[in-house]
Design goal:
This protein folds into three domains: about 120 residues, Glucose Oxidase, domain 1 (3-Layer(bba) Sandwich); about 110 residues, Orthogonal Bundle (Enzyme I, Chain A, domain 2), CATH 1.10.274.10; about 270 residues, TIM Barrel (Alpha-Beta Barrel), CATH 3.20.20. About 50% of the residues lie in helices and about 15% in strands. It is built from 19 helices and 17 strands. α5 links the parallel β4 and β5. The longest helix is centred in the N-terminal third of the chain and has 45 residues. The structure holds phosphoenolpyruvate (PEP) and magnesium ion. Magnesium ion binds next to α16.
Length: about 525
Amino acid sequence: MERFSGHRVVGEIAIGIIHVLAEEPGKVSPVPVSDVEAEIARFDRTAKQAAGQLRRLSETSEQRVGVENARIFAVHAMMTEDVDYREEVIRTIRAGKVCAEYAVYMAGRHFSQMFADMEDSYFRARAQDVKDVTDRLLAVLTGRGTVEMPEESYILVAEDLTPGQLMQQKRNRLLGIVTSRGSAYSHTAILCKSMRIPTLTGIVPNPSWEGHRAILDGRLGVLLIDPDTETVRQYLKQMKETAERNEALPESGPAVTKEGRRVLLCANIGDREELACAIRNGAEGIGLLRTEMLFLDSQELPNEEEQFTFYKEIITAMGGRRVVIRTADIGGDKPADCLPEPPTDNPALGCRGIRLSLLHKDVLRTQLRAIFRAGAGENVAVLYPMITSEKEIREVKEIAESVREELKQEGIDAGNVEQGIMIETPAAAVLSDRMSTYADFFSIGSNDLAQYVLAADRKNSTLYEPGHEAVIRLIAMTVNHAHRAGIPVSVCGELAADHDGINALIAIGADELSVSPSLLPEVRRTIREYET
Ligand code: PEP
Ligand code: MG
């Protein structure tokens, strides 16, 4: 039995036969052509065909991964018809009198390199999109077709896997995924999470594994090749136990510990699908509405009415249960075209969250108008991300007050929306005694808090450790300060969905946990099993 360690993306287990996805042929050679116009026409037909494939893929994927996730294929379809890409291909065909395959290959290299060289991490990530689109065009041009799948169920092992390649797999045969490249934040990883496919990255595939039996342990982050019978037996037992436990997961009802302590269990959402899942799984409220999702995909800022409608829809669907609306947390690893952050060498430490909002006060005012209007007479709160100083929160609250006044002057009900501070920087945690005087509640963003406390990028799975003692101690201090001031504390980072994290947070005295909606039943069970 051989053992390989990788990075966890989706923490589930798979046992099955390995299928190694063959690397696509690398370099494409320039074959001379005599009829340049015919070659250009061939490229145009190819682009149309590839765009059609991608649009169909977008439609057929919607049911499996949801509208938001399936949108990537529609974006790729548009890219195959991109004017600049086409011009580059045509220029190469004409200049060298060469085949379309070579021109596409060169255009792909040119544009993906261009994106890869960009400072901005969002644009750098687009290099992979260009590569995906180029690979598809080459597959159509060469008649190579798409990924071949074995007949039996399999664990797919690949150098890298594009969203397109993933969606071509038959879901009922695909047991798990292991790739060498890719991070937990790639489009493919997001799709795997949404479909709960056990997934690891950081393991270099070996073609000799083809057909061998393997265990993919997404919880420990290991791949076992040719496991012995006893190991397989143990894993099968674990899988059975997990399946039984999952079946028995409580989908609703209050989360009360064995000793009778009530922990409010809420959901983090960013769109309507997550809202639906939160309701299905009995969320007691929305602990975090990530409003930046409205801004991320858009070239234009969402206006007040669009925001109002979206917030109102969520508030109404929650039927009186509390909805905490966070002002847009744009910047860092969440860049938005419609509200670019000032250039910086390190976006995580740059002008993100409330800093960017204070740079664009008009955008903040518009958002607050929409939140206050939607929240009038409802159980709604607003939450400010990435606060680091009293000066900042004072400035934000002054703006909020003036927006409220403005609405009143216009004869519009501005409601009585509570205001909370996200504690996700060490500064805010250390100053939490003072911060508590400005807030109706705290929400602890353990994802960012851990990254800033540990000086470890939250995307770096080797250094990043959200349950680190230093993080837990800071959270404990924050909870103490909050309770002394008489305000409640929610924890909305991933730590609130982690088994040990939940136990630590309950012990510390957190009043509320807010987690990804699909994890609500598991978290509910962990809370119910808690005892000191
Ligand atoms: C966090 O930082 O823990 C958090 C919940 O915010 P986000 O993950 O959106 O940065
Ligand atoms: Mg955060």
